[in-house]
Design goal:
This protein is mainly alpha-helical and 155 residues long. The chain contains 6 helices and 4 strands.
Length: 155
């Protein structure tokens, strides 16, 4: 009795996947924000005891803000790298694939999850530009275009 073991990362033929639209991705992202917020709440709550409850500032930023940002980007980067999905995408049945169907590389994901998300969060006009997902043929956001990835329904 021989069964063929199929790895999670299988090559897909471009164009054979069903792209996830704006609303499915929105709800998955909202779920991810709730999860990251909860994790940050747990991790960062001990910082209240440092500095008599005042935020510790490092230049323009606070220590808790820096740590929260690190947790945010690491969550998206590592979950997508190892599972091709965040928890929000898992709940809504979505996954991230490369445009050409090959395996996701660290450089693809660094551009998608770190650079792309940073641009969306820091430059206000690009935060509003996320709506382009609803209008592009392959349902791509700016961070998908930067990282050469697509978000599809998992099979």
């Amino acid at each position: 009795m021989s069964e063929e073991v199929v790895e999670y990362q299988t090559a897909v033929q471009p164009g054979t996947q069903v792209y996830a639209g704006f609303w499915m991705r929105f709800w998955a992202y909202l779920t991810d924000l709730i999860i990251v917020g909860a994790v940050n709440g747990i991790i960062l709550s001990p910082l209240v005891f440092i500095g008599d409850g005042e935020d510790v500032t490092l230049g323009f930023w606070t220590l808790s803000g820096i740590l929260a940002g690190i947790v945010f980007y690491l969550y998206f980067l590592l979950m997508t790298r190892f599972f091709h999905q965040t928890l929000g995408k898992m709940i809504f049945g979505l996954k991230v694939i490369r445009r050409d169907g090959g395996p996701l590389s660290w450089s693809d994901l660094l551009f998608r999850e770190v650079v792309g998300r940073f641009v969306h969060r820091v430059i206000p006009i690009f935060a509003a530009a996320y709506i382009v997902v609803a209008f592009t043929p392959e349902k791509q956001g700016l961070h998908d275009m930067i990282g050469k990835t697509r978000v599809v329904f998992a099979r």
